[in-house]
């Protein structure tokens, strides 16, 4: 009964949104059951959502995907300032499909008890996430590829704790221990038996994605199809040798047809690559320089990543061509993104993700479709993965009646109208350093809160601020230091320092800026819904501050100087989210 009344509200809201079209007015008089009649569905757009795994922006991976450029970015809009809010697959994907930050989903790890599929289910999210909302409103929904870790062939769909994914008309997902096996993926479609394929993983996902597009077209309802290959993630398998892949290499594996490509390519040696001098904090600051063997490995790994992305590039072409053959391109949004970024040698870290650095959080996001400007690269808006669910909901013409921590990205008319501009991205993580050898180096504690904040247009600025669980701090002025190698917290916290940071044309001492950013981190650290989108309102409830430039006013100096700083209790690095350990939310100005 409940979902029926929601869909009635939605029908009305839809008609409000599209009140100028004759079709919508006609539909307004029909009962909710008619939401998905063919007249209605022909006007509702379809969405095809393609997501790679661990794809970087900062190491130029997009430059090696000519088909993605031809079919998506040249035909649509790229959001060049798009961020993951937690740079690891399970937390990031959970935030993406729920529109909630990781501190609100509390899915904060890739394994149980703090993460993975079992945690997603136990948090009630399998009853309350994107495909459910969409299918309640007349959409058919399909998904193929990797969803979350911990979906295992022995448990998935076999008991309540490991329930099948809800909300999908059909879902055919990769299951462990074959999820990260490039030449022998194992999958389960709905209630059918688990099945192994002796085909290249991305090709299997491509075939299944296109089959779903065909099914969706036949069904005649508006549709969402998620196509989520595992590339270019590293190949992994259980330590006990079960499901050992061929070849048994802990690297990304390309399709045979791409294994000759980029023979002598090397990781771009930007200034943050294996630097002689490091100013980073936390466990990263304790890393030794990479040796020659490790450096060779970064290049091999990089080449394999780019090779593995070639089949993803072909997948994009196959999808767009099929939609073209079915004459669906005019009414279909096609989105391309990834779950989180990646580093290979930067800051001396051998490989991996999970850091707050630009390599890990800055990620590709592009879209083509009805009303989307072509060949445009947007650097004037800051967006992130908790914005994705509200964006998709708005593109589908549904009301934003869920507890989203994000705001629709400006794509098409309705989403642009609903978009709330913001400069910041709150970034958070709980866990341990993750790379081969971390244990031997006795490195601990990858728990932190961070802030990316970018002012665009005149008076632009570009800052990154990180507060580590062990009390270390990092602050980078990315206008002058785009690769984050000059941590101003090491230089700028002494009163003798004359380093300045320019915000909206005015130069400020580092400390003054840091105090504002620390306040902002704290306004975001436990935020919910609107407060996540407009965090300055937590510090300035009168509503007179909504940008960093406004917060810099001298009248607020004393408030920010006296504000208790972001701190993790006793500098303990808990590997999970304990709200009490992350300090109180600061008192607002004037209280
Ligand atoms: C998050 O989940 C962990 C268990 O994984 C639990 O200990 C913790 O209390 C939860 N945090 C919040 C804020 O609910
Ligand atoms: C696997 O490869 C075979 C041989 O090329 C092909 O006939 C089959 O359709 C492929 N299956 C999938 C699921 O891609
Ligand atoms: C790659 O390097 C090898 C040996 O260093 C060289 O013989 C070969 O020509 C190079 N290939 C390309 C495409 O540059
Ligand atoms: C780092 O030090 C090594 C050895 O002294 C030197 O060869 C190399 O050029 C230095 N790299 C940079 C980026 O300064
Ligand atoms: C301040 O700078 C010193 C080095 O000049 C450094 O040891 C200390 O950790 C810095 N303080 C913070 C809070 O980063």
UniProtKB/TrEMBL annotation:
One of its GO terms (molecular function) is arylsulfatase activity. The keyword Protease does not apply. The keyword Membrane does not apply. Keywords: Hydrolase, Signal. The modification 3-oxoalanine (Cys) is found at residue 89. It catalyses: an aryl sulfate + H2O = a phenol + sulfate + H(+). InterPro entries: Alkaline_phosphatase_core_sf (IPR017850), Arylsulfatase (IPR012083), Sulfatase_N (IPR000917). Residues 45-397 form the Sulfatase N-terminal domain. Coiled coil: none annotated. The conversion to 3-oxoalanine (also known as C-formylglycine, FGly), of a serine or cysteine residue in prokaryotes and of a cysteine residue in eukaryotes, is critical for catalytic activity. GO terms for biological process: phenol-containing compound metabolic process. Residues 1-24 form the signal peptide. Its EC number is 3.1.6.1. PANTHER family: N-ACETYLGLUCOSAMINE-6-SULFATASE FAMILY MEMBER, SD21168P. Belongs to the sulfatase family. This is Arylsulfatase. It comes from Favolaschia claudopus.
